[in-house]
Write a structure and sequence with these properties.
The complex is a heterodimer of chains A (about 210) and B (about 220). Chain A is mostly helical and about 210 residues long. Chain A is about 85% helix and about 0% strand. Chain A is built from eight helices and no strands. Chain B is α/β, with parallel strands linked by helices and about 220 residues long. Chain B has a single domain, classed as P-loop containing nucleotide triphosphate hydrolases (Rossmann fold), CATH 3.40.50.300. Chain B is globular. The chains are: A mainly alpha (about 210), B alpha/beta (about 220). Chains A and B meet through helix 4 of A and helix 2 of B.
Chain lengths: ~210, ~220
Amino acid sequence: MAFRNGTDTWVVVMFFMIVVILFPLGVGPEPAILSKISSGVIWVAALLSAMLSMDRLFHVDYDDGSLDLLALHPQPLEFIVLAKVLAHWLTTGLPLIIISPLLAIFLNMDISSYFTLIVSLFLGTPTLSLIGSIGAALILGARRSGALLSLIILPLFIPVLIFGVSAVEASILGISSKPQLLILGGLFLLSSALCPLASAASLRQAIE
Amino acid sequence: MDVFSGENLTCIRGDRIVFANLNFSIEGGEVLHLQGPNGSGKSTLLRLMAGLINPFKGKLNWNGSEIQIQERDFCIYFHYVGHRDAIKNALTVEENLRFWSDLKSLGQNRYLIKKALDTFLLTNLSNLPARFLSAGQRKRLNLARLCTTQAPLWILDEPANSLDKESSEILDNLIKFHQKEGGILAIATHDILMPGSKTLNITDFSNSINSIDLDHE
């Protein structure tokens, strides 16, 4: 379904690239500085691009009445949320991960830390999609929902950002990034257990 | 024979009592026709019947046993058609139908989908992306889902809106067939005449708290 509306994916990927490319232009082409901020830039850009497509997660279904019918199906709403989050990640998170090494080159990131970057994004972006689903479900029916959504979920993204960046930073410094990656994995497991419950509950509220 | 009934249903939206102590009972082959002016709460009652809204008070029964909205087993017994068409623009007409019937039942139902498209004269359009459909065609596609379910209870909210005369007749025949099969129907409509149906006027319950029995026509 989301694949058919291919524009979403392109918009997100292009946004991600442009944000990252803006940094060398703004900060100046000093390789040392760029490689220092590279992990932070890529992670913040990934976070913002995940945000960008998030408000569409349930909104279309809510508007056209599909959500009513989905809520009336024998499958629990939690599974439906999980399926939608998976689709969201496949269309926005995965393309970001695939393109991230290219952007790491732009930012003069150390080649040895590419692997850590990709692993951390693999663990982190699904968590972003999961947490975002709560926000996307909460804003249904609200006016100016896009701005509201960022206010609700950006603070919740902070832990993922901290550990994602510090994992990459650790591997740039040549020390083990295992602890940070383990925490990212833990955040992912925790959010995949709890977020569908919370999202489904707020979807039910939205339908009433 | 299936019986669908509601006891002492009270619904509050915001600060307003939409209706209070409303009772109804429909048996297989019967039609419950909701009447009332715009905004009187017909859609609210239908959404409540479908379990989309929790009643403030009262309960819904299916064959004598109370329906727990949290239990999703009840979902297979009914089909709800609301105001909004729940049609995905990116999918073709046939894919729209197939998606929903696949979600509902995991069995093979190609034949049912073909029949549904035939019934609502959508066969020629079946490979067209749904974004090109007109309002009436979208409604027909929405109603075509009725043919793909075997649910004994249909809950229809203004199903004849934006339908042309021919399509209204198709819907009319479908409803008659459904009745003959022993199905139950709860409907809110201004357009289709429902001879021999039970009527329920929401305004009877919206102003007074006293319960009034259903009157048979």
